[in-house]
Predict the structure.
Amino acid sequence: MLRKASLLGTALLVGALTLLGTGCNKLKSRDDLNKGVAAYKNAKYSDAVGFFQEAISLDPDNPNARVYLATAYMMQWIPGADSPENLQFASKAKDEFGKVLTQDANNSVALASLASLAFNEADPLPLDQKMAKLDEAASWYTKLVTADPKNRDGYYSLGAIAQKKFYPALMTARVNASMKPDEPGPLKDKKAKAELSAKYMPVIDDGIKNLQKALDIDKESDDAMAYMNLLIRERADLADDKDSYKKQVDEADSWLQKALDTKKIKQERAEKKGGGGIVQE
């Protein structure tokens, strides 16, 4: 009986020590997380990575450490630079954000970051690869607005992607039709116009709808207004006649003016809030 009591006492002691150790690890993890956040805020991203990695090793269930780790990798990535080190930053960021999503499939930071990575990776690529990368970005942004229907930037980015997908094809068609860059439309080549309409009109319409959703969320989104101007202006080249073309260009001009006016209002508001003018030191 005494031996059983002794074994029970030993088991309880081991359990208590295990719980104590677990609690200590969580406290140490939280401390490393705070140190990492401080390093991150001071743009010491390499130091931040080390602290976040240690925080994760001490407490793998820490909900914030892996998001910060992935973001610290992403902040060191330079879009367009193809050095092995730079490519590793992007790869590690994607891996860590992917791990975040295995724990929380609707994590808006991870979804937005993966979308942003794909979007920015697209620019320097050859056209076919660029279109594929934009499709990848659009897929992530679609997941983002599904998880967070009030995410203005997600809708705006989907609108921007629509414009970036249509613009190269439109410019190629204008060149093939011997049209100068500033020459009024619509496209002279009716066959090319019909082909572009069939392929890209759904893309354009979706882009305009997403930009409108961004504006429904934030009526002062001048970036969304600017892309609304571009999409409608470029869509005008697919018009059936000059009257329809002019009507759409006028609508685009209206959006452009709204964007300029809104940007000015926001700038004046910021200057008033900050005291305005140039401050001498």
Q: What stands out?
A: The CA atoms of residues 53 and 257 lie 48 Å apart. The domain at 150-266 is CATH 1.25.40 (Serine Threonine Protein Phosphatase 5, Tetratricopeptide repeat).
